[in-house]
């Protein structure tokens, strides 16, 4: 085992507005006790205020590297590759920048062998990956916290310069309403992921208001 441990996670994958943020958190293995104290829960189990408070403490002994992909970036990149490939490339690049480390990844692919092939294609062979790793490994939870704080800030900045569209996720009624409104969607166009399959679904009128909502989806 190496002296440096690293964890990787993303946020914004299921969003239709705003960036996808991929983060690599790393620290010395000797700081595992502190890590458990300040990153015992993944970001989705914390309030925004708790995430910011935890991040202040985590920054004292963790390093963070991030890949921030805007909607415009993703619209271009998805013409040539899948979202899973884009995410794997970003994770591979962050691991390379971190250097010699024992890396654990919150796996975006359904199958581990598929994800391993992607990572190896982008030049990284030494890592481990699990589903829900942010709930099992504090170093991945630390990456999750950083990614969520950064994305929340970016989304707040977009709202401040455009309008209140909610969270940017398709499960949010404010987001759906904004995307269905011609003037609002024109204002938000630079920040909308046009190549998302969910986008056309979101724009359609719902057939069932309360009985069935097909738009509740996916991980953060």
What report would you give on this structure?
A hairpin with an 8-residue loop joins β1 and β2 (20-28). The model is unreliable at 207-219 (pLDDT under 50). α2 (48-58) packs across α7 (138-161). The two termini are 30 Å apart. This protein has one domain (4-158): Nucleotidyltransferase, domain 5. It is globular. The chain is built from 10 helices and 5 strands; from the N terminus they run ββααβααβαβααααα. The chain has helices at residues 32-38, 48-58, 71-77, 83-98, 112-121, 133-136, 138-161, 173-180, 182-188, 197-203; strands at residues 4-11, 20-28, 63-69, 102-106, 128-130. With 220 residues, it is an alpha/beta fold. It is 46% helix and 15% strand. Strands 3-2-1-4-5 form a 5-stranded mixed β-sheet.
How would you describe this structure in keywords?
globular; 10 helices; alpha/beta; five-stranded mixed sheet; Nucleotidyltransferase, domain 5; about 220 residues; disordered C terminus; single chain
């Amino acid at each position: 085992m190496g002296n440096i441990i690293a964890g990787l996670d993303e946020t914004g994958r299921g969003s239709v507005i705003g960036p996808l943020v991929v983060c690599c958190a790393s620290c010395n293995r000797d700081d595992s006790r502190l890590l458990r104290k300040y990153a015992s829960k993944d970001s989705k189990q914390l309030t925004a205020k708790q995430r910011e408070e935890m991040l202040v403490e985590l920054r004292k002994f963790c390093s963070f590297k991030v890949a921030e992909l805007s909607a415009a970036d993703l619209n271009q990149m998805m013409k040539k590759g899948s979202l899973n490939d884009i995410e794997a490339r970003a994770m591979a690049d962050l691991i390379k920048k971190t250097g010699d480390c024992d890396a654990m990844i919150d796996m975006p692919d359904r199958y581990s062998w598929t994800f391993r092939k992607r990572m190896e294609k982008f030049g990284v062979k030494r890592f481990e990956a699990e589903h829900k790793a942010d709930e099992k490994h504090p170093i991945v939870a630390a990456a999750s916290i950083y990614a969520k704080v950064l994305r929340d800030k970016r989304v707040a900045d977009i709202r401040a310069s455009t309008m209140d569209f909610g969270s940017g996720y398709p499960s949010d009624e404010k987001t759906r309403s904004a995307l269905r409104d011609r003037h609002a969607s024109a204002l938000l166009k630079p920040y909308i992921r046009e190549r998302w399959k969910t986008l056309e679904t979101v724009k359609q009128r719902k057939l069932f208001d309360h009985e069935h909502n097909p738009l509740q989806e996916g991980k953060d």
